[in-house]
Amino acid sequence: MTPSMVSFVRRAAGALAAVAMFATMVGCLGLQVTLTLDEGGGGYLDMTIDISESALAMAPRSFPRPLPATVAELREAFGSLSGVVVEESSEVATPADRRVSARIRFDDFAVIATSPFFPGTGSSVRSFLGRNTLRLRIGAQGTEGGADDPAASDCGCPPSGNPAAQSEDPNAELAEQLLAGRKIVYTVVTPTPIRSASHGVISPDRRAVTITFDTADYYYLNEPFVATIRW
Q1: pLDDT tens digit string along 128-152?
Q2: Residues in the chain with pLDDT < 70?
Q3: Model pTM?
Q4: Rounded CA separation 178/180 (Å)
Q5: CA 91 to CA 17: how far, in whole Å?
Q6: SS3 sequence, 140-175?
Q7: DSSP assignment, residue 123?
Q8: Fewer CB under 10 Å: which end of the chain, C or N?
């Protein structure tokens, strides 16, 4: 093999590894979440996670994932939290993807929001004079910290556009191909009508707000995405 061919193979392998690590850090290629809050501060978390088997195979198994890749991981992560019960869970595998689903009951949102496996770690709910505010924080690739992370921002909208065209990252085109068509859909259901939401679409009865953006765009989200919902 000539030196130029060796260089090409190394670059290609590096690109695949980088995208695989991204997919592993995100923990999924597709994510649907419904967070249902009750008046007592508890509620339900319903999650469906679509994971790329090929990405997991390429990336190191020991690499930290902020979302569970198996039912066993999910039950271990949430089962250890006080007042949190995994009521239902399932795992279905195909040659291309693995789908992990769960319904989780929690007594206190503040507890479940501390879990690194919760899709919104560092989020918080505050109540004052009968009015409530949810600060929903969806962390960025490579970003750590809680709800008080100074990198968090309440401005802007879910990222959109062609990431390959917006970035000089040499892996951009490959990442876009791997993640094409995948979505992150986050719905928050409140016990009383929503007064306002900084992002997303509020349902006609004002009891739910849904935020949707492309998983591919998450690859270039350098700051946590924060949405504020009031009811």
Answers
A1: 988 999 999 876 543 333 333 333 3
A2: 1-29, 54-67, 139-180, 216-222
A3: 0.73
A4: 6
A5: 25
A6: CCCCCCCCCCCCCECCCCCCCCCHHHHCCCCCHHHH
A7: -
A8: N
Residue 111 has what pLDDT?
95
Q: What is the dihedral of CA 94, 21, 48, 104, to 10 degrees?
A: 130
Token representation of residue 176: 């876009």
Q: Report d(CA 215, CA 5) in Å as an integer.
A: 32
Q: Which of 231, 222, 139 is nearest to 190 (CA)?
A: 231
Q: Measured between alpha carbons, how far is 165 from 213 in angstroms, rounded to an integer?
A: 17
Residues of 9-22 as b/e, b for ≥16 C-beta within 10 angstroms? eeeeeebbebbbbb
Tokens 């509020």 -> residue: 202
Amino acid at 11: R
Domain ranges, ordered by start, for the chain: 3-230
Q: How far is CA 41 from the centre of its chain?
A: 22
Residues 6+ apart with CB under 8 A from 31: 47, 48, 49, 50, 67, 119, 183, 184, 185, 186, 215
Predicted pLDDT of residue 90: 94
